[in-house]
Amino acid sequence: MSKDTAIQVRWLGDVEEHDYPAAESYLHLLHTEDVAHAIVQRLRGASLKQFKAKDIFRASQLPLLAAGNSHVQKDSKKISDGVLLSPLLLLRDEAQGRVVIADGYHRLCAVYAVDEDALIHCKIV
Q: Which domain of life is it from (predicted)?
């Protein structure tokens, strides 16, 4: 789809509560339990920011998941139905020069499919 379509991505005013434990679980694969917990606490206190979908992908160095991915399809349906999406949780990995998507990878892929220039609401530390 292009940005000329009538589909508009809508965002919640804050991150859904269940996204924080999901982010912590993922971050625990990359860091010790204490460090992962501290990162999530910082994310909880962070203010919302906006970045273009294409820029987050470039900074994360992750591939775009196919539109046929079941989780991307679920989030794409939410977008087309006008459901408000939860902002992404991002971590700057300065040592590696990239952004870690702690939570929201599938949402990002779904939004990108609608408009690569769409502003993604997120918290980043």
A: Bacteria
